[in-house]
Amino acid sequence: HDALPISHYKVTVGGGILMRTLAKKLCLLSLSGLEDIIDIPGTIGGGIIMNASAGLKKKLIFNCLNKVKVITPEGEILELSKKECKLAHRGSFLKDKKYMDIEAIFDLVKENKMIIQKTMANHTSLRYSRQPMYFPSAGCFFVWIKPKFGSLYKKYKETNLVSYRVGDAMIYTHNIAFIVNLGNATSSDVYKIVTHVETVFKAKYDINIRREVVVIG
Predict the structure, then answer these.
(1) Phi then psi for 55, rounded to 5 degrees?
(2) How far apart, in Å, are the Cα atoms of 216 and each of 24, 98, 124, 191?
């Protein structure tokens, strides 16, 4: 882009590109800013709508997002700045309004390709050590803010939710944020676990635990 310093670039991508694919393509171009999305499943459009991040501190997409192009439920095409997207923890204005993200522009910087690759490798190693990467799963299902509500694991232990299972769907023993598929789990099995957790948390702690995953149908 002529108006930017030689080390800074604006990159326009379609909302349907997989985050893993985008990270790899940007690495080949030696462009830094989105390498940490390498192991997040799903599309960049979905990642923006959900404000994909690693916990509360590492704002993977937020840091370099410039603006987006969306389609409203009424079929109108809008262009919104990052500020107008109102990205929040596991959510956004786009999610609230049920907008579909069809295009995004990111501000990225030139970086040594080997440094980008090392960052990606470190991120992958960390993710495999903490998350159930060897099982199909419904992902990290609930939004949980530890500074506000305390230890999620402690509450799961108190209510016998660790390893809670319905059919082949189970709350993952080693990272209770995830619901995994042990073989032949159905969406109904997963949903029964979700509603059970919600019921337990409301009854015991008076907490309306919020879903991170959007349930359709």
Answers:
(1) 75, -160
(2) 30, 12, 29, 11
19-28 vs 113-130: helix axis angle to the nearest 10? 150
Q: What is the value of pTM for the model shown?
A: 0.78
How many helices (H) does the chain have, and how many strands (E)?
8, 11
Token digits of residue 28: 């080949």
Q: Is the distance from CB of 172 to CB of 161 less than 8 angstroms?
A: no
Partners of 104 in beta bridges = 13, 68
- Residue 90 has a pLDDT of 81
- Residue 176, number of CB atoms within 10 A of its CB: 22
The dihedral built from the CA positions of residue 204, 207, 213 and 216, taken in this order, carries a sign that is positive
Mean pLDDT, residues 176-185 taken together: 95
